């Protein structure tokens, strides 16, 4: 009885000293602007952001994204981190409950005493329990839970990143094919001009200098077409590596989908360089619109990387609590119940055994500052996690703002680019007719050709930039992730961990007053 009283007194003293040292806050605020500085896009659907790819009516794009996510090592590594953190969470939670082990033994001995030689066999259930007086095990469990939630968000972040990368590559491939069609048409036009100029020179109507210029222009146009075809081939190879689809199969799918025209025929072997008649630079595919919440805090709360960074702060706070609790006494209780049998001379003697205890307390006295150093180290990691979280929020704001600026700028430039293209097309047609009638020089024709070609390429590249800006906005807005999103279904239920994510809620973002 006196031992229990002394143990309780020591525990009370330690508890009072524990209260004197506080654990840092598990949730911190990050300052975000009260509103976006760039204009917001219109006519988009924010609630369908997770299914944004399917809204584009491009089955091949969806298939490529699914294939890339299945083959991505980053997504696989993120799924592995979920499995590891789930196991660590189970182990940390198990430390709060008693453990039960079964033990058996058998021995035979001959003692120099009145006892005869015999065989002793025993079987027992042994239990032990660490009474979590100062919350060390609870803090470890909380830290494991936060890391598990962070790993789940990290898996979604990896999938969104892969989807954005594949979409950018896919849109780049489409734009490249359109540029290839434009350069082939331009090369065919230059070759035709060179042929006509050669006939005129042979008849004495064109000078040798004009013929040399026409031939140089044709060679330059053909060179541009070859370079553009090589660029498209490179894009196909990059897309094949991302999706783990063989290049011949990928080219077949691209050709059957009609998304890249005759690109499937422009392999490394090099198909014919015939022009794709009727290609319109203004017909490039564009990603659909996305709606963004007017309040930045609402948008950032749906980013998995921001959520993961906040969970890291909470886990670091719990780690501080674990390190602090290691400086205080530990109280454990053990016991066992079992049976024993002693066999000697053909006779069996059976007994039942049980014990309660010992109730033991371990009180740290001197460790050369090891435990204090561990506390300081965990506090330093907590400060680092807070700094990283706030930097993640600032970067998230910047990414959304940049995407919005690029979208607004590309929209504003689109009308001017189309107007310029139409004007340069009309001008080139007029100059070409005048040249064929002998009323314009070859120099005028080549100058009009250059300006028209630049305008064609400008429109295609502008639409490519706009698609890239939409993809960047999709990525910056979190890709439709929420705290209720499911995790990989491998080896677990898809809804595992959802309750804890909902319990933790959204990141603690604060807008300045």
TrEMBL record:
**Alphabetical keyword list:** Signal
Region Disordered, as annotated, extends over: 480-513
Q: Where is the composition biased (Polar residues)?
A: 482-505
Question: Which InterPro entries does its entry note?
Answer: MdtP/NodT-like (IPR010131), OMP_efflux (IPR003423)
A single Gene Ontology MF term assigned here is: efflux transmembrane transporter activity
Looking at the keywords, is Signal present?
yes
| The species this protein was found in | Duganella fentianensis
Q: What is this protein called?
A: TolC family protein
Q: Which family does it belong to?
A: Belongs to the outer membrane factor (OMF) (TC 1.B.17) family.
Q: Where is the signal peptide?
A: 1-20
């Amino acid at each position: 009885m006196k031992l229990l009283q002394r143990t309780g007194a020591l525990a009370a003293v330690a508890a009072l000293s524990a209260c004197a040292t506080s654990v840092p806050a598990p949730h911190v605020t990050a300052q975000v602007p009260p509103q976006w500085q760039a204009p917001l896009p219109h006519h988009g659907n924010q609630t369908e952001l997770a299914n944004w790819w399917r809204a584009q009516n491009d089955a091949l794009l969806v298939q490529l994204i699914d294939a890339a996510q299945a083959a991505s090592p980053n997504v696989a590594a993120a799924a592995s981190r979920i499995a590891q953190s789930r196991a660590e969470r189970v182990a940390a939670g198990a430390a709060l409950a008693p453990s039960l082990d079964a033990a058996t033994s058998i021995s035979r001995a001959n003692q120099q005493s009145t006892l005869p030689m015999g065989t002793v066999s025993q079987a027992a259930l042994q239990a032990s329990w660490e009474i979590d007086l100062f919350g060390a095990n609870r803090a470890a469990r909380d830290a494991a839970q936060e890391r598990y939630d962070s790993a789940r968000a990290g898996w979604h972040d990896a999938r969104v990143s892969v989807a954005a990368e594949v979409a950018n590559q896919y849109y780049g491939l489409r734009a490249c094919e359109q540029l290839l069609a434009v350069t082939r048409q331009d090369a065919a036009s230059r070759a035709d001009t060179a042929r006509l100029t050669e006939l005129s020179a042979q008849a004495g109507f064109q000078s040798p200098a004009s013929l040399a210029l026409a031939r140089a222009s044709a060679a330059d146009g053909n060179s541009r077409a070859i370079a553009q075809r090589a660029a498209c081939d490179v894009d196909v190879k990059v897309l094949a590596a991302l999706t783990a689809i063989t290049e011949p199969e990928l080219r077949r799918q691209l050709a059957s989908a009609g998304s890249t025209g005759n690109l499937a025929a422009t392999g490394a072997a090099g198909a014919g360089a015939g022009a794709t008649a009727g290609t319109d630079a203004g017909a490039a595919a564009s990603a659909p619109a996305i709606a963004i919440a007017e309040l930045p805090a609402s948008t950032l709360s749906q980013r998995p990387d921001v959520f993961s960074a906040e969970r890291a702060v909470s886990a670091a706070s719990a780690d501080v609590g674990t390190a602090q609790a290691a400086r205080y006494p530990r109280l454990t209780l053990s016991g066992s119940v079992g049976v024993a049998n002693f066999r000697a001379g053909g006779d069996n003697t059976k007994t039942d055994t049980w014990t309660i205890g010992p109730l033991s307390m371990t009180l740290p006295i001197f460790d050369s500052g090891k435990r204090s150093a561990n506390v300081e180290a965990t506090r330093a990691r907590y400060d680092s996690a807070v700094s990283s979280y706030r930097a993640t929020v600032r970067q998230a704001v910047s990414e959304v703002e940049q995407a919005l600026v690029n979208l607004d700028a590309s929209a504003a430039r689109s009308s001017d680019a189309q107007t310029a293209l139409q004007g340069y097309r009309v001008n080139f047609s007029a100059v070409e007719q005048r040249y064929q009638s002998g009323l314009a020089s070859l120099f005028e024709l080549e100058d009009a050709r250059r300006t028209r070609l630049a305008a064609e390429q400008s429109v295609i590249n502008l639409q490519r930039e706009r698609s890239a800006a939409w993809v960047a906005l999709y990525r910056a807005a979190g890709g439709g992730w929420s705290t209720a999103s499911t995790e990989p279904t491998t080896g677990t239920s898809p809804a595992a961990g959802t309750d804890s994510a909902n319990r933790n809620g959204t990141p603690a973002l604060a807008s300045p007053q």
